[in-house]
Design a protein that fits this description.
This protein has four helices and 27 strands. With about 525 residues, it is mainly β. The chain has a single domain, classed as Porin. Its main location: membrane.
């Protein structure tokens, strides 16, 4: 009997276990899978984010390039070690860069809500520069980072944000809603081609820039038929201020490097106010832009109270800039060919001509046939305003243009011609300040009569590209840069001390126009 009960109990436990296992293995109804769907509302490449009504597009590029003769990637050899043209200058600089864009859009009762983000991860080779602390020696000078480090540290610089070559640049990060643009975007003053009417070269004057974006609050009105207008308040600190020079504090070394005084820019008081009107049609584009720029200095220097409140300061002065631009598409030379041109005039707002990727102090060395001179030197300096202790600011005037012609030979080959020219002009009072410093500090041989800090700056170039596969392009861009200084012919300046940073000795230098070539070789894959 006990045996029978034991068998019955064991059987029930076993059956219970089997029954439990079978229940666990029964199929459970799965949730519906949300597949990614194409979003055709905003053009190709957009997809709905699963579970939302927001569309997203991912894009970017990978670029590898070598700049020859520029000393850094990819601007003119017109200052510093590049302008010195000696054993401290780089014959080549190499950069690899990955760009990433994220574009999201959502339809709403107020129109499309858009966010846009663009960043670039870069690695740029460094160089060796003169060691000011120990003349006759050099230090490793990483590009894309601050300071100098020993050569042994260079391999560690692959980390973005470290002291050298590796870097992360946030170019655009903005929200658009109901006609408003809030965040970091291209200036409303700039044209759609920004710095590149037909080129890869970063150093063209003759118009507004901010290719890497400027913080702004903008309202844009669309009037239909391709007509729009915008009003914008944009940050002036990073991109649209050159220099406010206190010439009373000018030093010999600075004057011979195109820096005509000590920088004396005060804190922010007003953003730049920008207005723009644009007509965008099938035939091309016309645009007119204006900008107002507040020049706000800090305090006068010199004396026991140098740079402090009791020393006083020059009153603010507003500068301005105006620009006209024209693009003509599908011209008779071929399908897809275009011409882009623009012209600009500034007074106290020089960055709207000498855009933010350019240097604003120039010192280019060359040969000389003048007896007694060691070498020749071309100098020039761009400012928004200059003053001396106790005076008001004198605004600097500039004007210029740039343009380009783009031609497609066939679906695989294209070429472009481009050029730019810009002038810097100081008024009589500003010249008296600068020339007084030049004569007394830099020992200008021609005296006040032959002193003229005005100059012209020009670039011409040609670009050719080959696209064997869609979105993969190999290109070469050759640029010729000219610095036309206005000091009297045959004038000389005396450099009174050796310069370790550019390895130039204390000597007599002939003031003379200068020029240079630079070449960019690039491979780029867009996606």
């Amino acid at each position: 009997m006990k045996l029978t009960k034991s068998l019955a109990l064991g059987a029930s436990v076993a059956l219970g276990g089997v029954g439990g296992a079978s229940a666990a293995d029964l199929p459970v109804k799965a949730k519906a899978i949300e597949y990614v769907k194409v979003c055709s509302l905003y053009g190709p490449g957009f997809y709905y984010i699963p579970g939302t009504d927001t569309c997203i597009q991912l894009g970017g590029y990978l670029r590898a390039e070598a700049a020859i003769g520029s000393n850094v990637d990819w601007i003119a050899p017109d200052s510093g070690a590049a302008g010195a043209r000696n054993r401290l200058s780089n014959y080549y600089t190499i950069r690899s860069r990955e760009g990433l864009t994220v574009d999201t859009r959502t339809a709403s009762e107020y129109g499309v809500v858009r966010t846009f983000f663009n960043a670039a991860f870069s690695w740029t080779t460094g160089s060796y520069g003169g060691n000011g602390a120990a003349p006759g020696s050099t230090v490793y000078a990483p590009l894309g980072g601050g300071g100098t480090v020993a050569p042994a540290s260079a391999p560690q610089n692959a980390n973005p944000g470290a002291v050298a070559g590796g870097s992360l640049g946030v170019y655009y990060a903005f929200i658009q809603f109901a006609g408003f643009t809030m965040g970091k975007a291209v200036s409303q003053f700039s044209t759609p081609w920004v710095n590149y009417p037909a080129n890869n070269f970063d150093g063209l004057p003759g118009g507004g820039g901010s290719i890497t974006g400027v913080s702004q609050f903008t309202y844009t009105a669309q009037f239909g038929n391709g007509v729009s207008a915008a009003i914008s308040a944009q940050d002036q600190v990073a991109y649209t201020t050159t220099s406010i020079w206190n010439v009373s504090l000018a030093a010999n070394a600075g004057l011979l490097a195109g820096t005509y005084g000590a920088s004396d820019i005060g804190g922010t008081r007003s953003p730049d106010i920008v207005g723009m009107v644009r007509v965008d049609q099938a035939w091309g584009l016309f645009q007119a832009s204006v900008a107002a720029h507040d020049n706000h200095a800090a305090y006068y220097g010199g004396g026991a109270l140098a740079g402090t409140e009791p020393n006083g300061y020059p009153a603010d002065k507003w500068g301005w800039a105006g620009q006209l631009a024209l693009s003509i598409k599908n011209i008779p030379t071929g399908a897809g060919d275009s011409i882009n041109i623009q012209g600009v005039y500034t007074n106290g707002a020089s960055r709207y001509n000498f855009q933010d990727l350019m240097a604003t102090s120039y010192a280019m060395y060359g040969g000389t046939s003048l007896p007694g001179a060691y070498q020749s030197l071309g100098i020039g300096g761009v400012s928004d305003a200059v003053f001396v202790n106790g005076s008001g600011m004198e605004l600097t005037t500039t004007y210029g243009f740039r343009g380009g012609f783009n031609h497609n030979w066939n679906p695989y080959w294209n070429s472009s011609l481009y050029g730019a020219w810009a002038a810097v002009r100081y008024n009589g009072t500003a010249k008296s300040y600068i020339c007084g410093a030049m004569v007394t500090s830099a020992l200008l041989s021609s005296g006040l009569a032959g002193c003229n800090p005005d100059f012209n700056y020009a670039v011409v170039g040609v670009t050719t590209g080959w696209t064997p596969v869609k979105n993969l392009t190999f290109s070469a861009d050759l640029a010729y840069i000219m610095l036309d200084q206005k000091y009297a012919a045959g004038s000389t300046v005396a450099q009174t001390a050796n310069s370790a940073s550019v390895a130039k000795p204390a000597a007599l230098y002939e003031l003379k126009d200068q020029s240079a070539f630079t070449l960019l070789l690039r491979a780029q894959r867009n996606w």
